[in-house]
Design a protein that fits this description.
This protein is of the alpha/beta class. It has helices spanning 43-50, 68-71, 87-97, 104-113, 129-140, 159-174, 186-192, 210-217, 222-229, and strands at residues 3-14, 17-28, 32-37, 58-63, 72-75, 147-150, 178-183, 195-200, 203-208. Bound molecules: adenosine-5'-triphosphate. It comes from Lysinibacillus xylanilyticus.
Length: 231
């Protein structure tokens, strides 16, 4: 599988504190990679560096294309929508940013696929958290990115909302989109990730398929492995 991103020895310091410490990350075409870690482990900083939003202090990142910023879809922890605009108008406005014009039917199809058709006239900022997260994924995939990066996409959601996000991530994979997402939920990671990176204090402690890592470390489940590697 072709590599989309290859980051080598990526490092970030804030003042004298190293928060991401010489990590290597590869993301291949069509794979789902989860990044897990304790609070403050460096996940969001790593994502910011991969997106080109946070400059690294050292290390290199190679992308499959020089125009990567336009070809990655991203949803960070906050989901900013255009205030006062409905769900469908937000979709139209984000599409216009990407230079895409969508017909009414195309918008309805997307909203139906994400179970949002019934709220299409509702102001986006009035949606429930789960609905906002689904809408955020619609708008970040309008331009058919090859890679989508999601920072804690299911944080704060109820079990049904979490399941919806997991299904959306699987659907992205089915359409050959690679996904990098951060999570604190080990069951979610087991359910959807092809590969998991466990981060602790700025370092990657393990990198492999959930099953492969559990076998290697002889643990019953991913949570047990997480505790073993992050204490
Ligand atoms: N702009 C900044 N200035 C100083 N320190 C920062 C800055 N951004 C992040 N940090 C610190 O870097 C460390 C890593 O933060 P980061 O947000 O990457 O962790 P995280 O793994 O995403 O945590 P969480 O799971 O809580 O979201 C933390 O100790 C944080 O306080």
């Amino acid at each position: 599988m072709k590599k989309l991103i290859s980051a080598n020895q990526l490092t970030k310091n804030y003042k004298a504190r190293c928060v991401v410490d010489h990590i290597n990350i590869d993301i291949k075409e069509g794979e789902i990679v989860a990044i897990v870690g304790t609070n403050g482990a460096g996940k969001t900083t790593t994502i910011g560096m991969l997106l080109g939003i946070i400059p690294q202090d050292s290390g290199t990142i190679e992308y499959w294309t020089s125009d990567y910023k336009k070809e990655i879809g991203t949803q960070l922890q906050s989901t900013p929508f255009f205030e006062g605009y409905s769900v469908e108008d937000n979709v139209k406005l984000f599409a216009a940013f990407y230079g895409i014009s969508l017909t009414k039917n195309e918008i309805d199809e997307k909203l139906t696929a994400f179970d949002l058709l019934q709220v299409k006239k509702t102001p986006a900022i009035k949606l429930s958290l789960g609905q906002q997260k689904r809408l955020a994924i619609i708008v970040t995939t309008l331009h058919h990115p090859k890679l989508v990066i999601l920072d804690e996409p299911s944080a704060g959601l109820d079990p049904r909302g979490q399941r919806d996000i997991q299904q959306i991530i699987k659907r992205l994979k089915d359409s050959r989109v690679a996904v990098l997402f951060s999570s604190h939920d080990m069951l979610e990671v087991m359910n959807v990730a092809d590969r998991v990176l466990i981060m602790h204090h700025g370092k990657i402690m393990a990198n492999g398929s959930p099953d492969g890592l559990m076998e290697h470390y002889q643990t019953q489940n991913l949570e047990e492995l997480f505790f073993e590697l992050t204490t």
